[in-house]
Amino acid sequence: MTKKSEFPVTAVRWHSIFVVLIALALMFFACSGDNNGGGDSSSSVAVLSSSSDCPAGIQLCVGTGSATARLFVQWNDDIEDEDDNLRPDPMAWIYRFNPADTSQNKGIHMIFAVAKADSRFSALVYYDPTIDNSTGGTGKPLGWAVGGLGYAFNDSTYVSTLTLWDSTMTTILETGLEPNSNGLFIADSGRAFDFYKNDFPDTDHWESGWVTAGFWSYQINIDTVAGYILDTLDASKFDWSMVGASTRVLKDKSADYYEWSPPWVPPTPSSSSNGGDPSSSSNGEDLSSSSSEETSASAKINPNLIHPANRNIRIK
With 0-12 CB in 10 A as exposed, 13-18 as middle and 19+ as buried, what is 164? Predict the structure, then answer.
């Protein structure tokens, strides 16, 4: 087996992040979610059929109900099997649910249902039920944040066990961690997403992160009228969600798409006619302008200010 290739770091376009900063802050107070303890989305979650009975390209069909939604996950990790063939990526699942049932019709419920029904799929999640109560308010639930997703190909384990490191990545806190009976790893904070590492990085899909390790972008199908009925991913049919998974309401033919992105690395300043001052260049371009497509987001906004329930919200 060839060594797992390193996913290339590409610049993320942040030029509109400043426009929506205030909107994001407001959304923190609007997010809501069902805190069901272990992440069991519904007592009616069931495997509808084996993967061989699902449409081609679908890993598993789960849930019961009159409506159908699809979950797509893309790890971008280039892992290979024992014959040096790339593992399937992205992967897809079908979720059936009752669209009128508020315990089944959110994006996070689809994650829960797939994690519970598919023994090879797992998710790292975090729940924070409070907002700022300094003014005497009772708080509102911010909902669940999805910080890690995995799929195990190792036939001897069926699950990807994890190792949890400390924040300096020098000391192991726990090793051999397994998901709970609902297929979930429960983090004690959103920032801990960065420190869960897969014990089988060369054979299993797994990525998790908050800031330093990367992040999952959360995208939803654009056409909410006709819906999405394809069983293979067409990324052009999706746009970045402006709400968290706990607030995303699923309808018949909805589709959610999670895509892993590595941490953004600012470009190395190039030499210029002003003696190497990175604030300007030989062509007179102001690199501090928001029109630059590679402006550092960290210079404008501290990503740690964004609540983990909204960390996987993608900004146009």
Answer: middle
- Beta partners for residue 126, in sequence order: 145
SS (H, E, C) 102-119: CCCCEHHHHHHHHHHHCC
The whole-angstrom separation of Cα 72 and Cα 288 is 36
In our burial notation (b when 16+ CB lie closer than 10 A, e otherwise), range 187-219 reads: beebbbbbbbbbbbeebbbbbbbbbebbbbbbb
Integer Cα distance of 183 and 158 in angstroms: 11
pLDDT tens column, 42-97: 434 444 444 556 898 899 999 999 999 999 999 999 998 888 899 999 999 999 99
Tokens 């009159």, residue located:
66
Give CA–CA dist 312/145, Å, rounded: 8
Tokens of residue 65, six digits: 């109900």
Residue with tokens 């809501």: 32
d(CA 276, CA 142): 45
Tokens of 210: 């908050």
Closest CA to 187 of 108, 115, 258, 127: 127
pTM of the shown model: 0.73
